[in-house]
Amino acid sequence: MNSRERVMAAIGHEEVDRLPIDFGAMRSTGIMAIAYNKLKKHLGFGHLPKTKVYDVMQQLAEPDLEVVDCLGGDVVQVHRLAPAFGAKVTEWREDILPDGSECLVPESFRPGTLENGDRVILDGGREIARMPAGGLYYEFSYFPLADARTPSDIKKRGWPLISQKEVLFLRQQAERWRRETDKAILGAFGGNILESGQFDFGWGEFMVRLYTDRKLIEYYLDRLAEWHLQNLELYLGAVGDEIDIIQMGDDLGTQQGLQLSPEMYRQLIKPRHRKVYEYVHEHSDVKVFLHSCGSIVEIIPDLIEIGVDILNPVQTTARGMEPETLKRNFGKEITFWGGGCDTQHVLPFGTVKDVKRDVEERLRIFAEGSGYVFTQIHNIQADIAPEKVVAIYETAKGFRI
User: Fold this and answer.
1) What's the domain range around 355?
2) Residue 316 in contact with residue 342, Cβ under 8 Å?
3) Is residue 82 in some structural domain?
4) How confident is the model at residue 400 (pLDDT cuts 50, 70, 90)?
């Protein structure tokens, strides 16, 4: 099988020749640029161009195809034009990462530094995000709907549609991957419902408003879903015939359970999810990939019902998300994409031997009967040694289904 055939067969719960692997093909299966620079050097790829930081919020590296191939990767990503904070990934400039290593960042990404060492991102003179001194991520610091009280306030948010410039950008990427590789192509879309409310209102404010301002929140959620559908039409028109998988996102869980009750999910979020995911299935042959962190075991049947084909990051360290439970109860109905290495405990604190053992134990459960694409649980963090990264992927490459 080639890479695309392998991934699509796994999603279809069909027999595969070897374990399909994702290294860095979306914003929650990636690697921070600091760790990636060390990995490139360790693997002997120091001659490659400087690392591009395409997701400036999470400081994620754009993996070079040579590294993806070396680690057995079967998937590549079609980026949005501006994945984070409006920073367009079409033109680049040199910059320095917090550890002093070199990188490239989007030309338009020009944060300022305050006297206390904090770095801030400004939009029209307003601070919208901040990286605390000594930190490694940018965090949202502006929430445009925090004070919204009426439908008119919601309308003022601004609901921009995908531009023709982005349509062309998307198309060029997808055509290039299809022309130059045999890999499965994952298109990043988004489609967040719960998370968008948290980004727009502020996390705490939105969670309170779900209870105290239900009528306005339902108006907001309806407008949000309508906006996603308008953009989906443009997005699928651009690349629906080229990509294999479309990535949606919505963190619905915490370490101990759902962020909101199952009943509230079914009343407020699920109907809007359904509209978005069913639109994809009705207008393309593309598979729906949902990234949702935390313990979401209570609503996995709901997600399957509304058209989710693939679930990521498979946070097995959260309550009720043990590999055996997930595979036994849902393994025939959905594809698990992730869960391949414990990035909360084993990867940061274990030895290389511990990492290999953890990967092997998980693969013996998840890979049986296919319906599985390998990657670790969420992104590889900045302080992870390259030897551990190699241990993850060499173990996966050597696994026999």
Assistant:
1) 3-22+143-398
2) yes
3) no
4) confident
User: Is 319 part of any domain?
Assistant: yes
pLDDT digits (tens, 9 = 90+) for 128-147: 999 999 999 999 999 999 99
Q: What's the CATH code of the domain at 371?
A: 3.20.20.210
- Is residue 211 included in any domain, yes or no? yes
* CA–CA distance, 374 with 338 (Å, rounded to integer): 5
Taking the CA atoms of 79, 276, 228 and 85 in sequence, report the sign of the dihedral they define.
negative
Q: Which residues pair with 61 in a beta bridge?
A: 53
Q: Are 43 and 68 in contact (CB under 8 A)?
A: no
DSSP one-letter string for 191-256 = --SHHHHHHHH-HHHHHHHHHH-HHHHHHHHHHHHHHHHHHHHHHHHHHTTT-SEEEEE---B-SS
Tally of domains in the chain: 1
What average pLDDT does range 6-34 have in this prediction?
A: 97
Q: Whole-number mean pLDDT of the chain?
A: 97
Q: How far apart are CA 364 and CA 400, in angstroms?
A: 9
Tell me the per-residue pLDDT of 25-79, one tens digit each, with 9 for 90 and over. Answer: 999 999 999 999 999 999 999 999 999 999 999 999 999 999 999 999 999 999 9
Would residue 125 count as lying in a domain? no
Q: Which two tokens stand for residue 61?
A: 């590296």
Q: Which residues contact 4 (CB under 8 A, 6 or more apart)?
A: 74, 182, 183, 184, 185, 244
What count of other Cβ atoms lies within 10 Å of the Cβ of residue 124? 5
Q: Is the pLDDT of residue 348 over 80?
A: yes
Kind of pairing between the strands at 287-291 and 310-312: parallel
Q: Give the Å distances, CA to CA, from 90 to 86, 96, 240.
A: 12, 19, 21
User: How far does CA 265 lie from the centroid of its chain?
Assistant: 21
On the question of pLDDT at 87 being above 90, the answer is yes
pLDDT of residue 78: 98
